[in-house]
Amino acid sequence: MDKLNASQAAGALKYFYSLLETNPENPEVLNAIGLLMFETGEKKAALGFITRAIELDSDVPEFFNNRGIICRSMQMYGEAIWSYNEALRRRPDFADALFNLGNVMKDIGRPRSAAVCYEKSIAIKGESTDALFNLGVCLHELGRLDAAERAYAAALKIEPGWSALLNNSAMVLLDTGRYDEARVRLEKALQAAPSNSRARFNLGVLNLLYGDMKSGWAGYEARRYLPEFAPWRYAFDEPQWRGEEDRKSVLLIRGEQGFGDMLQFFRFVHTAAERVGKVIVECRSELVELFSAARADCDVVPIGADLPPYDCSLPMMSLPHVLGIDMDAVSDNVPYLGVSSSRCAGFSISDIPGRLKVGLAWKGNRGQRHRDNRSIPLAELSVLFDNTEVEFYSLQPGGSADECEEELRRYSIYDAGTGFRDFADTAEAIRKMDLVISVDTAVAHLVGAMGKPVWVMLPFPADWRWLLDREDSPWYPTARLFRQSRTGDWAPVVAEVNDALKGKLSDMRMHSRRLHPPARIMEKPVMSTLN
User: Fold this and answer.
1) Cα 222 to Cα 217: distance, rounded to the nearest angstrom
2) What residues have CB less than 8 Å from 467, skipping those under 6 apart?
3) What angle do CA 270, 271, 277 make, to 5 degrees?
4) Residue 452's closest CA among 433, 426, 428, 466?
5) Which residues contact 133 (CB under 8 A, 6 or more apart)?
6) What is the pLDDT of residue 36?
7) Model pLDDT for residues 182-234, shown as the tens digit of each residue
8) Are 50 and 31 in contact (CB under 8 A)?
9) With contact defined as beta carbons under 8 Å apart, do 33 and 16 qualify?
């Protein structure tokens, strides 16, 4: 039904109540009152009226569909699914009920089921922007990029100026490596709706991917308006530091997002500290000891602890924006993290001479978005373990719970991560490694921040911070990047890493021979016997 203003809704309710007085068990009237109650925000009462209408006439699929809409709005997802299924049992070609059922499936994280519902709805009712848009969202989430692109393209033919649609279609183009086309879509999205924070953020990320730091950091600030960044929104609601110099002020830098983000952006604390009187860094507890050891000019406190007084604050990942950081400045102060050599580790590293000690991190954080894209099954790395001159150490924080002990033993991997209490322990293990091979995870950032050699295996498409088509990283001068050319295909990457590892071992052997040339063998003359 069309949206009604308060006066219209009140008048309509008065009319239907008058009808109810003469016929209190009229299901159509009860259903109409329920819809009006829903329009005015009285959801519980609305549910009661429509449920009563169903009790009086259970053959009307629209009643069940309306009940499902109300239940979904109240996050009663099980009841909503039952209601839509009942509507469809009575009318299998009820396109609106199929669309609404798809919405619930999308809400509860079942994109495959949702996509089926949207496709059936479109087949019955024809293409609509809402159904195509939602279908595109689900297909994108399922990794069916070609199908998602087709859904968005069909929707754009109907409504070419829909900003959210332009943004979403740009994300599919980004995930297929069509960056220039994605930029055009994002710019159109912002032209259509300059207040579209998601498009502004995504365009900022794309600029960072291209190395355009000034535009990139400015666009990245739009994250404060996005729901996925809600856990850190409090960091934006305080008086914000703008990068000005004030030797009397106390600046609170609030850590945000994941471990890798905080490890990467902690480098800018030093520059901020040069402009204010004092810096306080708030971060996750697992980073407190590591950060405290790195900077004597700031206080480090865990998130949730009582804070000392401060004058202004800034989210950590806004530092490069207010400091005006460009490409030339991102590698300043590297290395900027480390541990004391006197720190006592909870594990031992062997001292077998001639063996290369290689740390290994092959999976992302359990709560990380796109974790599966950034993780490699240990078995797919098995070719690396054939190098008998290498000792491998798992650097997975918290241990390798996803892999059984038998698998680790099979590949002779020492599980150092089991003893890690925090990232200071991880750093101590890294300090003893000759090389770390890692996927795009916090370990890779920590190794780079320590100035230790790290080989990073990147998915396609890679995150913005690794830029485009580079084997090196301005963020971490000691890093070497190995990139997927196709989503999910790790075999060529692992083969390339293995070739590089063999090359490194060969160089080590040659270097060892130069340092320790073989002893000269003196021939002893044989004396003949005189007869």
Assistant:
1) 9
2) 209, 210, 211, 473, 474
3) 80
4) 433
5) 151, 152, 155, 162, 164, 165, 168
6) 86
7) 999 999 999 999 999 999 999 999 999 999 999 999 999 999 999 999 999 99
8) yes
9) yes
Euclidean distance between CA atoms 424 and 288, whole angstroms: 9
Structure tokens of 486?
A: 């196709």
Q: How far is CA 368 from CA 122, 227, 374, 479, in A?
A: 34, 16, 9, 22
- The count of other CB atoms within 10 Å of the CB of residue 27 is 20
Dist. CA 359–CA 348, nearest whole Å: 13
How far apart, in Å, do the first and last CA atoms of the chain sit?
Answer: 127
Q: State CA 236 to chain mean position distance.
A: 20
Rounded distance, CA 491 to CA 482, Å? 11
Asked if 266 contacts 240 with a C-beta cutoff of 8 angstroms, the reply is no
Closest CA relative to residue 365, chosen from 426, 320, 300: 426
The region, left, alpha or beta by phi > 0 then psi within -120 to 50, assigned to residue 406 is alpha
Say yes or no to pLDDT of 50 above 80: yes
| Contact criterion met (CB below 8 Å) for 483 and 477 | no
Rounded to two decimals, the pTM is 0.88
Q: 3-state class of 390 per DSSP?
A: strand
For 462, the token pair is 């890679």
Question: Which residues neighbour 22 within 8 Å (Cβ) at sequence distance 6 or greater?
Answer: none
Query: Quick one: pLDDT band at residue 425, thresholds 50, 70, 90?
Result: very high
Instruction: Give the single-character DSSP code of 266.
Output: G
Label the pairing between strands 435-439 and 356-361: parallel
Q: Quick one: pLDDT band at residue 525, thresholds 50, 70, 90?
A: very low
500 vs 387: CA distance, rounded Å: 12
Residue 99 near residue 118 (C-beta atoms within 8 A)? yes
φ and ψ at 280, to 5 degrees? -115, 130
User: Measured between alpha carbons, how far is 134 from 33 in angstroms, rounded to an integer?
Assistant: 30
Interior CA angle at 135 toward 129 and 137, to 5°? 105
Range from 234-238, 433-437, 474-478 carrying the lowest mean pLDDT? 234-238
Walk across the sheet containing 298-302 and list its strands: 298-302, 276-283, 246-254, 312-315
Residue with tokens 């239940």: 71
pLDDT tens digit string along 353-387?
668 999 999 987 655 554 467 899 999 999 999 99
Q: Indicate the SS3 state at residue 463.
A: coil
Alpha helices in 232-305 (DSSP H): 259-265, 269-273, 288-294
pLDDT at 284 over 80: yes
| Residues 115 and 102: beta-carbon distance below 8 Å | yes
Q: In 266-382, which residue ranges form alpha helices assigned H by DSSP?
A: 269-273, 288-294, 319-323
Half-sphere exposure for 28 (CA within 13 Å, toward CB): 2
Task: Tell me the C-alpha distance between 142 and 227, whole Å.
Answer: 21
